[in-house]
Design goal:
Number of domains: 2
Number of strands: 29
Largest sheet: 5 strands, mixed
Shape: globular
Order of helices and strands: EHEEEEEEEEEEEEEEEEEEEEEEEEEEEE
Structural class: mainly beta
CATH topology of the largest domain: Methylamine Dehydrogenase, Chain H
Strand content: over 45%
Length: 342
């Protein structure tokens, strides 16, 4: 397993004269770093220095990140990641029944109680976590231990999203959609509208009566609290993930670099600039969205355009999740876990 993480290193900054930096607040520290940066450019002849170096007319630079890589012997392919907070993160693999937990310091293995493959994980808190296993089995974590839940469908589910402890949605093969009401799992819909081989691969919503599900053949379903209806996507793409910030700002990603956006009225194609398959999407705001996929692909949307980020790996990346404070976790094949931090 590889865990790659970035940590700001503001202590590396020094004053332009080389003397140790006295205790400073963050704004003053960044200002000194800006001045040092401009001084270096001036000495290199890359820019002119008509203005004094000390003039604060330059925008603050982002903090310096130092990247490190920790290599472990665990090499299973990760399929899903979800967390309740920055120090309560869970990741599941596609073989061996492996579940890892991050407590803010280290990733450690959990006793899952199964050797089956996991497909998806989600929850509402660190003591209410659901993980779907092959064969339609569901594991639940109550903050102490994982246990099996009763589910009689036998259908393998591919994604899960939780509106609340009593409104949990899961989607999977044969167009199956399951709902958990806090006590029992029940079937909401099964069987495709046009083919029994249609799969639903991603689910997300703003509330229990505003849920989106995406899958094969360009399929996008919407739930309004009463029934599921088919939406017009305008494509036959194989969607793998869906996420949004509101009912009028939803992103769906899929194979061949497909990205669609829903503005509350219609779905439209976005330009991703690449043809690799995209597996999942997540963000913190309309101008801070991440999509991950094949060959180490990570795309970022800034509210205007999608651009490629350097991930440091060529492994297939399968899932992304993060915190509102900006910590982003990406998991993928070969035991890969990436962590990005502002």
């Amino acid at each position: 397993m590889r865990i790659i993480h970035g940590v700001p290193d503001p202590e590396s900054a020094k004053l332009p004269d080389g003397s140790p930096t006295p205790p400073l607040d963050r704004n003053r520290l960044v200002s000194y770093k800006n001045r040092l940066f401009v001084l270096v450019l001036c000495l290199s002849g890359l820019i002119g220095c008509a203005d004094p170096v000390g003039v604060d007319r330059f925008p603050d630079l982002d903090p310096v990140f130092s990247w490190s890589e920790i290599v472990h012997e665990v090499g299973e392919n990760f399929r899903g990641v979800w967390g309740a907070s920055a120090d309560e993160v869970f990741a599941v693999t596609s073989s061996g029944g492996t579940i890892l937990h991050y407590d803010g310091i280290a990733w450690t293995g959990m006793e899952s109680g199964t050797t089956r493959s996991f497909y998806a994980i989600g929850g509402t808190s660190s003591s209410n976590v659901f993980a779907w296993v092959t064969g339609g089995r569901v594991r639940h974590y109550d903050g102490i231990a994982w246990s099996e839940m009763v589910n009689e469908t036998g259908h393998s589910m591919r994604d899960i999203w939780c509106a609340s402890p009593s409104d949990v949605f899961a989607v999977g093969i044969y167009g199956t959609i399951m709902h958990y009401d806090g006590a029992n799992w029940s079937m909401m819909m099964t069987g495709s509208r046009d083919s029994e081989w249609t799969r639903l691969m991603g689910v997300w919503g703003t509330s229990a009566d505003d849920v989106f599900a995406v899958g094969t053949n360009g399929r996008i379903e919407h739930y309004d609290g009463s029934e599921w209806t088919l939406m017009a996507s305008g494509t036959d793409a194989y969607f793998r993930g869906v996420w949004g910030t509101s009912s009028s700002d939803v992103f769906a990603v899929g194979l061949q670099g497909t990205i669609l956006h829903y503005d509350g009225t219609a779905w439209s194609v976005m330009t991703s600039g690449m043809s690799y398959g995209l597996e999942d999407v997540w963000g913190t705001s309309p101008s801070d969205v991440y999509a991950v996929g094949s060959e180490g692909t990570i795309l970022h949307y800034d509210g205007m355009n999608w651009s490629t980020m350097e991930s440091g790996t060529t492994e297939n990346l399968m899932a992304v999740w993060g915190t509102s404070s900006g910590e982003v976790y990406v998991v993928g094949w070969g035991g890969t876990i990436l962590r990005g931090q502002r």
